[in-house]
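Subject — a protein and its fold
Fields — amino acid sequence, structure tokens
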Amino acid sequence: MNIKKHIPNTITCCNLVSGCIATSYAFGGAPKMALLWIIIGAVFDFFDGMSARLLHVSSPIGKELDSLADDVTFGVAPSTIVFSQLFVMEYPAILEPLRSWLPYTAFIIAAFSALRLAKFNLDERQTTSFIGVPTPANALFWGSLIVSSPSWLTNDKWSVAIILAMILITSFLLVCELPLFALKFKQWSFKGNEVKYFFIGLTVIILAGSVFTEGAIGFLQAWWIIILAYVILSVILYLKKK
């Protein structure tokens, strides 16, 4: 039996298991651990594709399995984090009668993540860049946002309305036709990769600053700012090219 050809799919299954563990932690009201397992899943997601290229093995089942794993880790898991958060938040009087129902809107994220992944599999334009926000970025944004609990998201009765609006906005960004740069290098020279190196440097600075000020938890809290910067930078580049 050729074990080599099974390595990428095994790594993909590790991504899937990570997403399941993240979901279980999210349902248990432990968003920090849920986010940590989403990040672990993202690492597996990075290495399954890399291993397939390095080992020169690919299969139709690998592509489908990758999408299924990604929707669990980057669709269902972040949806569950938001779902659990909406259940414990304070609601304004006008929305209080809907408290038992509104948390389920969080799973719109999972549905649009699945649609995003299906589009990605069929879209031949996304070989060197992305069209629409990638599902791992969206998952990191939501997990980190809930973990960091900024005051504007927790100290106001209308914070629940902000989250509901953000669910709709981020779901739209998953499937919209907005081009976003990808950290894929054809060559490593600075020329031609200025934006990528700038963003990597910015990411390191934000992570280092967050860890320095908040300790180890700062590593989890910083990602929503990084993803927001990624989207804003991509929008600026898109507008400059128009």
Summary: The longest strand covers residues 129-131. The beta strands are 129-131, 179-181.
